[in-house]
Amino acid sequence: MSDVISAPAQARVPVRGGGTFPVRRIYCVGRNFADHAREMGVTAPASKAERGNPTFFAKPADAIVTGNADVPYPSGTKDLHHEVELVVALGADAPAGVLPLEATQALVYGYGIGLDLTRRDLQATAKKAGLPWDTAKGFDHSAPISDLVPATQVSDLMSLGVTLTVNGTVRQHAPLTDMIWDVPDILHELSKLYALKAGDLVFMGTPSGVAALQPGDVFVATLDGVAEVRGTIVG
Question: Regarding the domain delimited by 13-234, which CATH topology (the fold level of the hierarchy) does it fall under?
Fold first, then answer.
């Protein structure tokens, strides 16, 4: 049976060394750094035993911005915030059922760095009303992302850190060891809720220092020595 409209273009992320990574879904982790949880007014766990369950939300696949392209300031907000995050790309389907921690790495294709852009005023309004905050997170151009680097080229992920500068000033920085849930933890927890597939991206959460972006701001996000994405917010 033929399509009744033209098929939309597949969202794809360039891969270092050649080729592209077709994006299926984008999962995001909320409150995965204790210092960020506290700055958002949430009690952070004092230990892994007290951490409970991770918070998940999603963005549409076509929210990605690649190639260091300009990022349009979104409609419907007066308070656009940056959140720098490790991005994990899955290159294989998970087996049926809950994914064991020891089986998670076999799914990982590669890593990148990205921004989870957030319409903070819309999020605050939704939270106050006890409503979902999809409109605060899942909007057009809300996921700038670097090229992906194959996992085989990253020797010790957890020794790295993430950093975001805006107009040359550091806004966010933290080692990945500060994450409450690491990559195996998150893939294990996601597999309880979703069938993980090749093409999925996971944005792993942000450290403290989130703040507003304005038209004209230039951002540079880095995963230490591995990946970088930069761009300009345009009005």
Answer: Fumarylacetoacetate hydrolase; domain 2 (3.90.850)
